[in-house]
């Protein structure tokens, strides 16, 4: 059903390339380029694939490559590789990949230091916040094992899952997990409850807004075999309610991540018409 607080989803294409994009981040940077040379303030776009982080600067309405930071790793990545790119306060960015972790330098010229790692990945962008949870990623597969560190309340093991999203409540956080068996789990720190009847895909992302409850859950839905769509939900009392119409996409979603400030999401789509990978910013607007 559509609740009394309707919202609109908007898709803004950011960048496309033939090589699979794993994640992207858009940020306004003041004063200097990230490679160290002086320039005017403006937007920068970070594009993560399995070989590098490419940094683009907006120039005359176009993205121009400013720096390319290679990812060096000793392990072979799985065929269906996934990755996470997170902007940080004390240095520029962290990169999580299967069996590998990369951290940027804190000063220019920018470098990326990568090492083998089985450390858990953060499930939400905000570091060091109450309720922050990390999960171990299966380095030879494309999902999280279900082992959590720290746990969600008393629960330290969940079913293996593809994606997770936190929905803040007044005195706890409700975590939504898209399990590898197709089920959706709601974990509140005490119970792990499987949600029945939801025909959702494997990608979830939480976005903070000024609409409704203040947090919406973006969910993939299969429109047909060749195109996915996104819809926003709220879950006031363990019963999901759609609060937007579906947003039709130009192909299947290959990744969906909440952006670093949690006010929008990044959806990577493999376009049906070209076969290229497109990074899109998904924003939410209140329409009442």
Question: What this model shows, in words?
Answer:
This protein has about 290 residues and is an all-beta fold. The chain contains no helices and 25 strands. The protein has strands at about 1-15, 25-30, 40-50, 50-60, 60-70, 85, 95, 100-105, 110-115, 120, 135, 145-150, 155, 160-170, 175-180, 185, 190-195, 205-210, 215-220, 230-235, 240-245, 245-250, 255-260, 265-270, 275-285. The strands form five sheets. Strands 1, 18, 19, 20, 21, 22, 23, 24 and 25 form a nine-stranded mixed sheet that branches.
Question: Helical residue percent?
Answer: under 10%
Class by helix and strand content? mainly beta
Q: Secondary-structure element sequence?
A: EEEEEEEEEEEEEEEEEEEEEEEEE
Extract low-pLDDT stretches: none
